[in-house]
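Continuing the series of single-chain predictions for the mutant panel. This is the parent chain; the variants come on the following pages.
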Amino acid sequence: MSEKTKRVRRIGVLTSGGDAPGMNAAVRAVVREALTNNVECVGIRRGYNGLIHGDYYLMTGQEVSHILSHGGTVLYTARSEEFMTEEGRKRAVDICRFLGLDGLVAIGGDGTFRGALELSRLGLPVVGIPATIDNDVGCSNYTIGFDTACNTAIDCVDRLRDTMSSHERCSLVEVMGRRAGFLALYVGISVGATAVLLPERDLDFERDVLEPIREARFAGNTHFMLVVAEGVCMDEKFEGVHTVFDLGNKIKEAIGMKPTVTVLGHLQRGGKPTARDRETASRMGYRAVKALVEGRANLIIGTQKGKIEEIPIEDALKMKKSIQMERYDMLRDLQNRVPRH
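Parent structure:
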């Protein structure tokens, strides 16, 4: 730290947007590393909404001792329409100045980081940590919570397959992912799905739904598992399909087979974080505090090729991440099919 760099004495930490397993591990790392550097850490409850309305407290190392294995977030999370206004953001910065915060660590997704960017433009040093089960933050190869959500969904699908295969049925399983199909694709590969439907892909009902079912049946299968990202039905990829239940009805109309529909929903957000999420969150939280203490701010702490990287927040928010379609091609190649001549 150069002599011109201001001494960091107190920082804040908040979680915002959808909760993700591993957020608590990141909070723990932020608090512990702050205290290691003789920096006080103020926990802000309920995200930017709590910041605006003064919901904060001084955190200690002892109180974060046992949160590493817990899902959800001990700091809670909430949406804030007030923060979307210029007046609300100015109030948030005024609260930070009143608290004497020399920086803020914001844990969440793109929406969280856009809020942090606005605070940085008002003079508050910020560092973001990507945590979302959708894994859709463009500047980071991996986001906290994704591995746990995948494992939770896989466990649910494996259990579902046990009973569905006993009845020779078709199963439609909807997983989270409004604009990103990372979760659906990873789960689909891991459970050997008959088909996976992604929001990023142009879809054809005959080619992408009916034909995989037929091919699986010709190959001797009597149970068919289709994994659907929720954004597929929201975006009406198929005519007349607004929900996954509509998709089930469309399948029945086409081939006389009515699928059993399971929406995993918020089950995917819960549960104990996996080792990968705990370890990644700890590394990111540690690096976020190191950056602030050493005079670097207005960054996102992301992963690139397995390494922790610091990306300027404005550059980070411009970065895009596309789904690896070679994984989708691999899924199709590994499905049980009849030989083509």
